[in-house]
Amino acid sequence: AVKTSDTGYLQRKLVKALEDVHASYDGTVRNANQELIQLAYGEDGLDGARIEGNQAFPIPHMTNTEMVDRYRYEYRDEGGFSDSMGGQYMDPFVRDSLLRDPQSVLRLQEEFDQLMKDRAMSRLIIDMEDKNKLKMNLPVNVARLIQNARTTMGKRSQVSNLNPITVINRVRELQEDLVQLFPSHHKDYHGRFVNALSRERVERALTLFGIHLRQILGSKRVLKEYKLNDKAFEYLLKEIRTKYQQSLITPGEIIGAIAAQSCGEPATQMTLNTFHNAGISSKNVTLGVPRLLELLNVSKNQRNASVAVCLIHDYQKRNKAQEAQQFIEYCTLANITTTVQIIYDPNPRNTVVAEDEEMIRWEQAVMNEEEEEQDADQPPSPFIARLILDNDLFNDKRLNMKDVKSAIRQVDDTYTVQANMESDGQRIV
Question: Where is the RNA polymerase Rpb1 domain positioned along the sequence (predicted)?
Answer without folding.
Answer: 1-375, 46-247
